Amino acid sequence: IENRREKLMNSIILELSAIEDKIIDNTGMYSFEIYKKLSEILEIEKKEDLRVSNIFGEFFNETIKLEKGKKYKIRVITKSQKSFSNLQKKLFEIAVNKEKIEIGEGVFRLSGIITKNETWCGEYDLKKEWDNLSPEITDFYEKIKMKIVNPILVNRKSVLGFDKILEIILKDVENEVEFEMGKVKESILNSVIVKKEYYREKRVNLLNNEIKKVYLGDIEVILQGYYGKMLLSFLQYVKYTGVGELKEYGFGEIIIKKD
Questions:
Q1: Does pLDDT of 8 surpass 60?
Q2: Among 198, 175, 53, 189, which residue's Cα sits nearest to residue 126?
Q3: Are 74 and 53 in contact (CB under 8 A)?
Q4: Are 228 and 141 in contact (CB under 8 A)?
């Protein structure tokens, strides 16, 4: 059996202080530069082992205005314990040596690391949750609120609708736990009551004008029984991994909250 902790995902927030004033072009998505820098620092071999956000609050802006001395936050998710240990080690070195961090056009210093934040930080092990699922859980009942913060992409188009999103989630999870989701898809669908779906269309210029229209939204669901509990474990998983294409760069961001 592989090391159980190897699949443990960790999510932290880095606080970076800008060293100089700079206006950054974000039409090609600055998160690609952030990813590139961090994957170099961590010597990431598999693309999906790392995930980053854009600078908080800047995802949809065409330019990012950096001001000297101002602090900016980015979220970093590692998908294995090895990568996380490596990240901790490298960040410690950067902090001790007061190294400059050059991300594309932006130059920063590391000013803090946040590990306590209910929405964005934490750790999660899907395989462990999956192994602990017991068919005896029949009385499980949970209200869940899902907030789509950044667009979920399929074939470079923004997707909406709980059923479609669920399909993408199941496909993503299938790769992770090596389990044929087709067998349980029907049961999972029957364990969910969708109480509310609300989407709004947003005109944007993302990926150098490739994406001009996206959907963001809120979904409220009730999960019941064994398969409802199974789905909750999947939803908590995508809270870390994101959903759909380009999720390594901050797309497909969903906030999951128990009501």
A1: yes
A2: 175
A3: yes
A4: yes
* Length of the chain counted residue by residue: 259
Would you give the distance in Å from CA 244 to the centre of its chain?
Answer: 10
For residue 2, pLDDT over 50 is answered with: no
Q: Which of 100, 77, 94, 104 is nearest to 17 (CA)?
A: 100
d(CA 153, CA 247): 9
**Secondary structure of residue 240 in the 3-state scheme:** helix
DSSP calls for 133-166: --TT--S-EEEEEEEE-S--EETTEE---HHHHH
- Dihedral angle, C-alpha 217, 220, 225, 230, nearest 10 °: 20
Distance between first and last Cα of the chain: 36
The half-sphere exposure of 144 on its side-chain side, counting CA atoms within 13 A, is 27
Q: pLDDT-derived band of residue 3, with 50, 70 and 90 as boundaries?
A: very low
Cα 80 from Cα 91, distance rounded (Å): 17
Residue type, 115: T
Angle, helices 182-190 vs 162-177, to 10°: value is 140
pTM: 0.93
- Give 246's contacts (C-beta < 8 A, 6+ positions apart): 153, 252
Strands ordered across the beta sheet of 192-206: 192-206, 211-224, 141-148, 254-258
Residue 214 reports pLDDT greater than 50: yes
Q: What is the helix (H) or strand (E) element at residue 130, kind and residue range?
A: helix 126-132
> Looking at the predicted structure, is the pLDDT value of residue 167 above 60?
yes
Phi-psi region of 128 (alpha: psi -120 to 50; beta: other; left: phi over 0): alpha
Name the 3-class secondary structure at 203.
strand
